[in-house]
Every structure is written in structure tokens, then in C-alpha cells.
């Protein structure tokens, strides 16, 4: 017999891990894009 | 004002602290994350939440770092897969230990004392080595430059050669064509997983040297494989702690937002600043963390609130000092390079 309390906390824990994973991907992509935009600007300032 | 269920000042504190930890993580390839759990303990979070949230933060940071190391070809997936098996068992045993100690009311004390001893010992070791090597190392530039180098057999430590000479079957081949006993790999994975589950850390600051010294994995591959392994061990650990209500997303999310940015800056700094220049700060930071947790333990034991405050300030100061040193050295080096290139234009 499936214990409902255990399966509910497992779903909740899975959602938490999924949320952290999603945030990590979003931050990797987001900051990566920011880095691509910022690098040429920093280089230009450096060599101005 | 409570934008994500926590006070705005706490939110800013978490993002800033995450940023500092990220700079350290990106620059040294390890370390920094072990500051989070003691900081949360000092802030008064229960041991289960401090350890669980620390582990979830490590998981998120490792995902981001592994994506980067994968692009550089610094991940041994076969070794990583085996490490996952040993570490998972170790984490489960460590987690059971934390809950058992919590039932006895001893969790915070035992975890705190383990931190003091471990951070203090590694801090002394790193600082001593940094002082010994000061001025004797001729390697310039970033420490990640050697990522694609061929493996020099002389670079394998004697202790690793001795351990590898005990050829307990089955044997397996790892990165660089090195033969090593499967039992050694699983043993190292279990022992570091045990500490990981017990202390709520990714275990990189223990596992990375263990992979290098005990198994003989080249450093760049050890860093990349370790991060890949932390993705799984951190994920499993977060899931197990999450089931017991030990993961607080309002702590993890802002820490991760700060660390992801800091890690990019720290990684970029590795190609500009020489690691040897910063290593001594890293050792001192570990010692600072160790003293901070000792203050907190003393504060709890003698019921002196000011000790807890001093402990928390010391943790923040340690992280701020080393991440600041990395950023300052990077800016100074970039300015020097820019100035050096100016005369050629005349």
C-alpha cells in the first residue's frame, strides 16, 4: 500500500529540487548572455 | 517588506553572501560552499534546515559549474558515475547520523565541532603550503590554464602511486590511462559522501584532494569530475533533506542568484590572476570559518549572545576578504595589462 504522506513529501521534495535545477539553468543562460554583452563593452573601456 | 517570504535585508545579505561564495567557487574550483552551512547555523536556523539548504545551494552551484567544465572537456563520466554510487551510500549514512544526533539534541554541537576541526586542519595545511611555496613557484597566469596538458607521471603523488600499487581487482582505467582499483574509487566516494551528508557540503574541498592524492586523477579532471558528481550527490541530498522539510527555497534562491554571477567573475579571474597570490587568503579564510564556528559553539554553550554575533561577522569577513582579494587582484592585473599595451600605440 502506498503511504500518501511519504509520496506527498517526495513530490514536494522533487518539486524543490526541480525548482533549484530550473533556477540554475536560467541563471547559467541569463548570466551567459549578460557576459557576452558585457565583455566587448569592458574591452572597449579597457582600450579607450 | 518581505518580497520572497524573507525580510529585504536578509534577501540582500543572502545575494551578497552568495556572490562572495560564487567568486571563491569560480576561482578555486572548490571551497566557499562550506561557509554557507555554518553561516546559517550562526544565523539561528535549525541544523536540518542549515544542512539541507546548504546542500541544495551546492547542488545548484554545481549544475552551473559542470555545464562550464563540460564545455572544456574536463569531466571523466565513468569515474564520476562510480563516485556517485559510493557517495550516495555515504550521504545516506551521514544523513541518518544527523537525524539521530538531532533526536539526541546533539546535532548542532557535533556538526559545529566537526566543522571547527576540519576547517581548522585544512586551513592550517593550505596556509602552511602557501607560505612554503611563496616566491618559489614560477607558474604565472591562471591555474586553469593547464586543463588540456598531457599528464606528467611525475605529477602523480607518491602516496597515490603506493595506493595504486595495491592492485585489488577489479581494476579500472581512468583519465590519463591510469589504472586504479575499483574499491579505492568506491572507498574514497563513500568516505567523502559520509562527510557530505553529515556536514551538508558538496564535499569538493575534501573529495578533490582525495581524488588527486588517493586515486591519482589529474587536477583539472578531478575538479570537473568532482563537480559532475556533486550535481548528483547534491541533488540526492537535497531531495532527501527536502522530504524532511530541510530545504528552504527562500534561502537557496537568493544565494544561488548571487553565486551564479560571482562564479562567472571568479572563473574569468582564473585566466588573469595567479592562484598562488591568493592561496594564503584562502587558507586564512578557512581558519576564519573555523574560529567563527568555534565562537558560535561557545556562545551556545555559555549562553553568550555576543559570541554568536562575532562568529557570524567573522564568517562574512572571511568570505569578503578573500573574494575581495580575488576581485582586487583581477582589476589591478587588468589595469597593468592595459597600461602595458598603451606605449605600443605611440
From TrEMBL, chain A:
Keywords: Membrane, Transmembrane, Transmembrane helix. The keyword Membrane applies. The chain crosses the membrane at residues 12-34. It holds the Pfam family DUF7512. This is Uncharacterized protein. It comes from Natrinema thermotolerans.
Automatic annotation (TrEMBL), chain B:
This is Probable membrane transporter protein. It is found in: Cell membrane; Membrane. It comes from Natrinema thermotolerans. Belongs to the 4-toluene sulfonate uptake permease (TSUP) (TC 2.A.102) family. The keyword Metal-binding does not apply. One of its GO terms (cellular component) is plasma membrane. Its main location: membrane. Keywords: Cell membrane, Membrane, Transmembrane, Transmembrane helix. The chain crosses the membrane at residues 7-29, 49-67, 79-100, 106-126, 171-191, 249-273, 280-298, 310-331. The keyword Transmembrane helix applies. It is a multi-pass membrane protein.
Amino acid at each position: 500500500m502506498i503511504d500518501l504522506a511519504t509520496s506527498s513529501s517526495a513530490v514536494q521534495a522533487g518539486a524543490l529540487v526541480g525548482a533549484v535545477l530550473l533556477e540554475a539553468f536560467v541563471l547559467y543562460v541569463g548570466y551567459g548572455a549578460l557576459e557576452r554583452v558585457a565583455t566587448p563593452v569592458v574591452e572597449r573601456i579597457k582600450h579607450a | 517588506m518581505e518580497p520572497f517570504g524573507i525580510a529585504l535585508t536578509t534577501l540582500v545579505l543572502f545575494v551578497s553572501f552568495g556572490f562572495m561564495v560564487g567568486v571563491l567557487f569560480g576561482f578555486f574550483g572548490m571551497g566557499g560552499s562550506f561557509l554557507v552551512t555554518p553561516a546559517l547555523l550562526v544565523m539561528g536556523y535549525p541544523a536540518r534546515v542549515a544542512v539541507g539548504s546548504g546542500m541544495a545551494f551546492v547542488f545548484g552551484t554545481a549544475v552551473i559549474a559542470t555545464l562550464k567544465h563540460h564545455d572544456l572537456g574536463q569531466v571523466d563520466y565513468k569515474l564520476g558515475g562510480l563516485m556517485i554510487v559510493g557517495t550516495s551510500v555515504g550521504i545516506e549514512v551521514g544523513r541518518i547520523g544527523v537525524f539521530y544526533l538531532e533526536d539526541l539534541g546533539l546535532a548542532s554541537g557535533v556538526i559545529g565541532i566537526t566543522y571547527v576541526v576540519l576547517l581548522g586542519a585544512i586551513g592550517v595545511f593550505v596556509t602552511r603550503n602557501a607560505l612554503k611555496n611563496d616566491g618559489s613557484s614560477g607558474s604565472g597566469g591562471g591555474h586553469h590554464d593547464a586543463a588540456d596538458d598531457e599528464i606528467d607521471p611525475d605529477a602523480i603523488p607518491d602516496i597515490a602511486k603506493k595506493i595504486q600499487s595495491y592492485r585489488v581487482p577489479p581494476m579500472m582505467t581512468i583519465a590519463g590511462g591510469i589504472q586504479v582499483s575499483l574499491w579505492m574509487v568506491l572507498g574514497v566516494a563513500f568516505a567523502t559522501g559520509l562527510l557530505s551528508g553529515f556536514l551538508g557540503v558538496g564535499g569538493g574541498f575534501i573529495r578533490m584532494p582525495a581524488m588527486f592524492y588517493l586515486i591519482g586523477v589529474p587536477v583539472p579532471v578531478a575538479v570537473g569530475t568532482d563537480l559532475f558528481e556533486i550535481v548528483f550527490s547534491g541533488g540526492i541530498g537535497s531531495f532527501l533533506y527536502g522530504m524532511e522539510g530541510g530545504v528552504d527555497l527562500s534561502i537557496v534562491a537568493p544565494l544561488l542568484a548571487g553565486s551564479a554571477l560571482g562564479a562567472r567573475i571568479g572563473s574569468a579571474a582564473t585566466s588573469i590572476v595567479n592562484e598562488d597570490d591568493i592561496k594564503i587568503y584562502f587558507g586564512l579564510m578557512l581558519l576564519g570559518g573555523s574560529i567563527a564556528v568555534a565562537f558560535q559553539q561557545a556562545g551556545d554553550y555559555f549562553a553568550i549572545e555576543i559570541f554568536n554575533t562575532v562568529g557570524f561577522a567573522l564568517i562574512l569577513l572571511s568570505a569578503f576578504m578573500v573574494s575581495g582579494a580575488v576581485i582586487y587582484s583581477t582589476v589591478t592585473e587588468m589595469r597593468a595589462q592595459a597600461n602595458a599595451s598603451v606605449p605600443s600605440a605611440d
